[in-house]
């Protein structure tokens, strides 16, 4: 018999709600993937790469043209200089990069500070590395602050002499909040006082609203020298199924990161890498993404404002939260389950992003909408919700 290393881990909420949506013929605004295909130009570039013979194992850390373009992008957007040969690794999606960074830096008994609500792969990855997840929390919306906010004092109070790593995710899934200059100042101060590393999950870096630039942690040298900065083509180019991500890290950290990477997946799909390298030479392929998603955000926000939901504006990502307290007193999971069955709209409870989804702390009458969908899909979902 196998003794499970993750005995308490079951099917993810995303799979559960997607299946429930399918069973009830509901519009699925739960799981975070775009409804639309990538640009035909990108698909053509993949076909071209295949026909030109790029179908065998590529170089383990990623093909040179793609790493070079990634280095150029980081320098142009954030003023951060990474050596494409030794400090950039192409990964099998951001989730593999997160796992590799944790496995490379965390050993038995090390503590890792995790800020909830958070992406569900963090804690299992920490536990598989022998580490201990230490949870702290964002401050939920209240009368004075309509969205989640970061309490840096609370985060720093979670750091001990056993802490090896702090995981930060901005733009933030599921809350949609992002960073200001003052936040980067606080992170620098924390690193100045504590000998820890940072894992920066920045997969939504190109989806930031209201004409604001994204402030990558890589833009601060004092942070970058101690950070794994991770992003993904899936969210940027509507290619979540391709599973191509990447990690920037100083050479010393990248060396250990690649040791894990080569024995997890070894390398990443060759034709996709060559196609992405060519496609991303045109900066407009990612620089216009914020405007594209802002329109969808505003469509959904304005539509929900005409219902009993109280929507919360997002600063980034393709997610939007809404308060349902005027509609129901049920806990978040029961509310979304009923909504899916009765009104045929599938959502995700924000409580699912907490260590204990059944706790009072996790249940704030909030649900997550994904607006990476066709406008007609969003309009139909809004119309169904108006019937409540």
UniProtKB/TrEMBL annotation:
Q: Which InterPro entries match?
A: Aminotransferase_I/II_large (IPR004839), Kynurenine-oxoglutarate_AT (IPR051326), PyrdxlP-dep_Trfase (IPR015424), PyrdxlP-dep_Trfase_major (IPR015421), PyrdxlP-dep_Trfase_small (IPR015422)
Pfam families linked to this entry: Aminotran_1_2
Residue span(s) of domain Aminotransferase class I/classII large: 26-385
Q: Which cofactor does it need?
A: pyridoxal 5'-phosphate
Q: Give GO cellular component annotations, separated by semicolons.
A: cytoplasm
> What keywords sit in the KW lines?
Aminotransferase, Pyridoxal phosphate, Transferase
**Is Kinase set as a keyword in this record?**
no
Q: Where is the secretion signal located?
A: none
Query: Any idea which GO molecular function terms this record carries?
Result: kynurenine-oxoglutarate transaminase activity; pyridoxal phosphate binding
Keyword match Transferase: yes
Which family would the database say this protein is a member of?
Belongs to the class-I pyridoxal-phosphate-dependent aminotransferase family.
Q: What is this protein called?
A: Aminotransferase class I/II-fold pyridoxal phosphate-dependent enzyme
Question: In which organism is this protein found?
Answer: Pelistega suis
